[in-house]
UniProtKB/TrEMBL annotation:
Superkingdom of the organism of origin: Eukaryota
Domain Glutathione S-transferase C-terminal, residue spans: 277-331
Gene: LOC119631515
UniProt GO cellular component terms: aminoacyl-tRNA synthetase multienzyme complex; cytosol; nucleus
UniProt-listed Pfam families: GST_C, Thioredoxin_16
Annotated InterPro entries: AIMP2, AIMP2_thioredoxin, Glutathione-S-Trfase_C_sf, GST_C
Coiled-coil segments: none
Domain AIMP2 thioredoxin-like: 139-229
Location of this chain's protein in the cell: Cytoplasm, Cytosol; Nucleus
Protein's recorded name: Probable aminoacyl tRNA synthase complex-interacting multifunctional protein 2 isoform X1
UniProt record, GO biological process: translation
Record keywords, A-Z: Cytoplasm, Nucleus, Protein biosynthesis
Length: 338
């Protein structure tokens, strides 16, 4: 065949020595093709029927030559592919052997992750089916509460004390840049939160309280959507739904009574004139009557809400409360410690 002009000059290329050498495929292909051409030129290659039909007029027909080269290249590439497949199978076998060794080590150490996980999931599923009627529960996200230092959410401290043997509220406080000084009362509140003992065996929810120059106490429960829950009373409702079973009141016959008391607390915190405050205190007295606590003889989140609301309003003194409310507040203080 005719010769082609060299496109690249002959340079002395220094190959790197920092990497391993790979098998050269081009050399094998080049030698095979050269050998094929020599055989074809010598007439040693047996032509195929298609090639013989063409070679009747010309012993070195270009079409026949291309066909022979193509067949030889396919044969060469097939051998290389088979070699790659064999190496791959060898690597996979080594990985399977390594996996078996790791499994043996884990069993010898006494770990059986699959059985423990399946047993735990089965037990959790059974508990959820019993307590929730088969409804699936989602894991709790950490919640953030924004509050003004002048309107301290004492309900967090009350719930933390009341639930210390049932549920853990891990409250961490921070100060926003919009607040220069939180004041003595808020600092005492932070110190009181730290002194509550924590039982690590109890379920826990992490609450981040940020002192901020905001108009309302607000809670953000979703890390992806800014959907705040406004008002300390509504925060109490939320925590009651995710807190210990003893304080969940949705399935209680006193559900409407507890919600009514919490609604009174919400209105009480927004009273600006003495007459409206007196009306709300009278409504609380009518709800309490001769009971030990609001809604019955056991403490509920309604008592938490009332006690925190009265604590947040220093303008309400003992003389503004009825004897029944005074006795109730003394009983509640032994549990909430606020």
């Amino acid at each position: 065949m005719y010769e082609m002009k060299t496109l690249l000059p002959q340079f002395d290329i220094q190959l790197p020595t920092c990497m391993y050498e790979m098998k050269s495929l081009t050399t094998k292909n080049k030698n095979s093709v050269q050998g094929l051409l020599c055989k074809i030129g010598a007439g040693q290659v047996t032509s195929t029927p298609t090639a013989s039909a063409v070679s009747t007029c010309c012993p070195l027909d270009l079409d026949m030559l291309a066909l022979q080269i193509q067949q030889q290249l396919l044969k060469i590439s097939g051998d290389d592919a088979q070699e790659v497949i064999l190496r791959q199978e060898k690597i996979l076998q080594q990985l399977n052997d390594l996996k078996a060794q790791l499994c043996d080590i884990r069993i010898s150490l006494g770990f059986n992750e699959k059985e423990e996980k399946s047993s735990h999931m089965a037990k959790s599923s059974y508990v959820l089916n019993v307590l929730n009627g088969g409804l699936r529960e989602e894991p709790l996200h950490d919640i953030v509460i924004n509050g003004h230092p002048k309107f301290i959410p004492y309900a967090l401290l009350a719930l933390k004390n009341a639930w210390k043997d049932l549920y853990t509220l891990d409250v961490k406080t921070f100060t926003h840049a919009t607040v220069s000084d939180i004041g003595t009362e808020a600092k005492d509140f932070e110190q009181a939160l730290k002194t509550v003992p924590v039982n690590t065996n109890n379920p826990k929810i992490i609450i981040t309280l940020i002192w901020k120059n905001c108009e309302h106490t607000e809670m953000i429960s979703s890390p992806t959507m800014y959907v705040p829950i406004y008002g300390e009373v509504n925060i109490i409702r939320y925590l009651a739904r995710v807190g210990p079973q003893e304080y969940r009141y949705e399935n209680s016959p006193l559900c409407n009574e507890i919600d009514a008391v919490l609604d009174i607390c919400y209105q009480l915190l927004r009273c600006t004139i003495p007459k409206s405050k007196a009306n709300m205190l009278k409504a609380l007295h009518n709800r309490l009557k001769n009971q030990q606590y609001f809604g019955g003889n056991t403490m509920s989140v309604a008592d938490i809400g009332v006690h925190s609301s009265l604590k947040r309003m220093p303008g309400i003194s003992d003389k503004d409360l009825t004897p029944a409310l005074l006795e109730w507040r003394n009983r509640a203080a032994k549990v909430t410690l606020i």
